Amino acid sequence: MRWFVRGDIDGFFGLALDNLVQLLVIDSLCRFVLGFPPELVHGRILPGVAVSLLVGNLFYAWQAKNLATQTGRSDICALPYGINTVSLFGYVFLVMLPAKLGAEASGAPNAAEVAWRAGLVACLGSGLIELGGSFFIDVLRKFTPRAALLSTLAGIAITFISLGFLFRTFANPVVGLTCLAVILVTYFGRVKFRGGLPGGLVAVALGTLLAWLTGLSPSGAAPSGGGFFLPIPVLGDLFSGLGAGELLTYLSVIVPMGIFNVVGSLQNIESAEAAGDKFPAMPSLAVNGLGTIAAACFGSCFPTTIYIGHPGWKALGARAGYSVLNAVAMTAICLTGTLAYIAYAVPIDAGMAIVLWIGIVISAQAFSATPREHAPAVVMGILPGIAAFGALMAKNGLRAAGVGMPDGKPFGDWLVEAFRGSDTWIAGVFSLEQGFIFTAMILSAATVEIIERRFLRASAWFAGAAVLSLIGLVHSYAFTPGDCVASLTPAWTSAIGYGAMAAVMAIAKVATVSDDASH
User: Fold this and answer.
1) Is residue 24 exposed (0-12), middle (13-18) or buried (19+ Cβ within 10 Å)?
2) Distance of CA 147 to CAs 197, 280, 359, 389, Å?
3) What is the DSSP secondary structure assignment for residue 79, as one 8-state letter?
4) 438 Cβ partners below 8 Å, 6+ apart?
5) How far is CA 333 from CA 19, 46, 297, 342, in A?
6) DSSP-based three-state secondary structure for 486
């Protein structure tokens, strides 16, 4: 297998767009929510992001090339890799913002640095959990049905990827639908443009042109700035944060985030195997953890992860080169201060059709790569992701109406009664939102075991869900003035419910008889 093939160009556009979105979010949240000065964002955080992306992307490219050499195949696609979106938002709003507000309340003159150091500690903790988890992940993988791993990804792909970008496509249909047509023709229709032009390149170029012609592109003067920012180790700041007790203070956030990252990465490795590329789980997860640790050591507060979407990139013809191209491009963007220029020139709408297509492929794979009789289990695994997306939409709608805003009515228990008036059980939505990755995997895995009449295994899965409920990793939520967040306190009713399910499964073998001889 060659290092670079034509399909790597299409794969690069899709993966680079995904990474670019994360960089834009980081820049926006750090500057406008956390109030970080530009020199901290561009001089410390983004160079740290560059180091983490370089470490992982180059390793996964080498891993794909090495697997191709070992197997004699030429169709191995590298695992996609980038910033973890869940941790990005989690560490901004649950670690760094509280740290900043606490520092300001105590009169500390360097509140931004306090918040940044807290983020570094959280990122380091997440990386250590990811690295440690890599040594035990094969055990989890052995006993977890494929439907449980793939359906969880499908739930995320259908909602946060596909629906999110589909809404934006129809909000700006001239650009969105035109680009979508190009992607559908070339990717689903399996055709190429004359002259060998990649479909992804045509879609992005056409979308950019239409965005500028229709006024969708940014208005005003082009940004100014730029420069060159070398990555510099920030071990002193990291140890300062550890010495201030930030690890213990935010352990209730760091631990579940780290576990989520391990589980999510495992699911994506399983997705790659379902697409035909079997990568060893332990080194794949270990390097993911090392990338996150490197991020913290060089100034980034944001963990990395093995991305969702391998089947899509593989279907595009991407191999190892797209990961190398992504490493080089993201490093250049992070180290040269050109992020603002890119955001100005190429609107996200120009490339979102590629990401929408990826979401569709991942969702379809959950059904096509699992036994047909396990289809109900796939659906069970998708439902929590839909609920989490519904919670996001509900909360965004409430904020748009002024609820949870500085001058509006704060979030609270009154919302449950207000929604119930329209027969909308929002309490269940908020409950499912918390730890939905775990919930999806457990429900799907237990359903597979029930279909196969392995009732004691199903009982064990439900018992595990009861334990997670008791320690607050699933279904435990609390209201803040502007949000509904994980409270990490016992969700007693959910634990009792799961306990009852475990009991039913435990006695099912002796309390029931088969009514389907051909099962």
Assistant:
1) middle
2) 37, 19, 17, 21
3) P
4) 260, 263, 465, 468, 473, 474
5) 11, 9, 20, 9
6) strand
348 sits in which H/E element: none
The first and second tokens of residue 373, run together, are 């009789």
Q: Is 452 within 8 Å of 503 (Cβ atoms)?
A: no
**To which residue do tokens 């490093």 refer?**
331
β-strand partners of 479: 484
How many Å apart are CA 312 and CA 183, to the nearest integer? 12
What is the reported pTM? 0.72
Give the C-alpha separation, 77 to 200, whole Å: 17
Which tokens belong to 233?
């180790």
pLDDT number for residue 313? 86
- The whole-number pLDDT of residue 270 equals 84
Helix 111-133, helix 97-105: angle, nearest 10: 150
pLDDT score recorded for residue 406: 76
Q: Which pLDDT score, from 0 to 100, does residue 14 have? A: 77
Position 130, amino acid: E
Q: Report residues of the chain scoring pLDDT below 50.
A: none
Q: What is the pLDDT of residue 87?
A: 76
* β-bridge mates for residue 83, sequence order: 304
Q: Which two structure tokens, joined as six digits, stand for 7? A: 């399909």
Long-range contacts, stretch 105-109, CB < 8 angstroms, 24+ apart: none
Classify burial at 190, counting beta carbons within 10 Å of its beta carbon; exposed 0-12, middle 13-18, buried 19 or more.
exposed
Q: How far apart are CA 323 and CA 310, in angstroms?
A: 11
Residue type, 53: L
Total residue length of the chain: 519
**Residue 47 and residue 231 in contact, taking contact as beta carbons nearer than 8 Å:** yes
Contact 475, 187 (CB under 8 A): no
**Structure tokens, 90:** 């989690």
Measured CA to CA, the distance from residue 336 to residue 472 in angstroms comes to 42
Q: What secondary structure, in 3-state letters, does 228-287 show?
A: CCCCCCCHHHHHHHHHCCHHHHCHHHHHHHHHHHHHHHHHHHHHHHHCCCCCCHHHHHHH
Tokens representing residue 85 in the block: 């979106």
CA-to-CA dists, residue 18 to 82, 85, 217, 354, angstroms: 8, 10, 19, 10
